[in-house]
Amino acid sequence: MYHRLAEILAVHASQVLKAMSGLEAERVVIAPAQAGDGPRHPLGVKVVFAGRLDEPLAGFFICAFADLATAQEIASAIAVKLGLDARLADDVDGTDSLLAEYLNTVTGRTCSDWAELGLTAEFDPPMKLSERPFEAQAGGAAFHLTVSVAGRPDVPIFLVFAPDVAVSGAPGAPGPPGPRGDAAGRSPS
Predict the structure, then answer these.
(1) Separation CA 88–CA 98 (nearest Å)
(2) How far apart are the first and last CA of the chain?
(3) Rounded distance between C-alpha atoms, residue 171 and residue 161, angstroms
(4) Domain range for residue 92?
(5) Could you tell me the CA-to-CA distances from 96 to 11, 31, 33, 43, 87 in Å, in that order?
(6) Residue 27 near residue 148 (C-beta atoms within 8 A)
(7) Residue 177 forms part of a structural domain
(8) CATH code of the domain containing 104
(9) Which terminus of the chain faces fewer neighbouring Cβ atoms within 10 Å, N or C?
(10) Count: domains in the chain
(11) For 97-141, what is each residue's pLDDT tens digit?
């Protein structure tokens, strides 16, 4: 089931990239990853989720880039397609905002399709990786998704499912609560 959920995320990552940037994916690769693997890149955005799929389930996905120039190239294409000035991607904040908007759209479409498979989850808004860095998790499943575009940098996404394991920053996880409560739907006190 985890692989099917990863396939859905990959489809939407590819389709939304085309819709928001005009860049068409040549291929999308989904490869298993081990707990503790993850993006080694500090530039990008992260979405945390928590919910149920037969049991409590939490996780996150990250769209991270190796360097600022690569992230800016994708962000600039998004800006142009959205009718914005491409120079918006010239600084880190503009790039982060454009990538967050991309991942927010991917999240909305993914959430809907995951719900059709029985995964009811709440998603936090995208956040900069620098605000909540990657945390290695045990259990569940992890995937590297790579959206390849001709003549452009790949768009890498890392996806982790952690059943019955609290994901730092997930709604209901220990530490600062997520904005919408825990996986059981309880609001933070």
Answers:
(1) 8
(2) 33
(3) 14
(4) 2-163
(5) 22, 26, 25, 8, 13
(6) yes
(7) no
(8) 3.40.1550.10
(9) C
(10) 1
(11) 998 899 999 999 999 999 999 988 888 988 887 654 455 455 567
How many Å separate Cα 44 from the centre of its chain?
Answer: 9
Does 185 map to a domain?
Answer: no
Answer yes or no: is 178 within a domain.
no
SS3 157: strand
Q: Which residues contact 61 (CB under 8 A, 6 or more apart)?
A: 9, 46, 47, 103, 157, 158, 159, 160
C-alpha to C-alpha distance for 72 and 96, rounded to whole angstroms: 9
Q: Tell the residue number behind the tokens 């995951």, with chain if given.
A: 114
- Chain centre distance of CA 5: 13
Give the tokens for residue 28. 């999308």
How many CB atoms lie under 10 A from the CB of residue 146? 17
Query: What pTM value is reported for the model?
Result: 0.76
Contacts 24+ apart (CB under 8 A), 95-98: 95/43, 95/68, 95/71, 96/45, 96/128
Going by pLDDT thresholds of 50, 70 and 90, the confidence category of residue 34 is low
Q: Are 99 and 16 in contact (CB under 8 A)?
A: no
- Tokens 């982790």 — which residue? 160
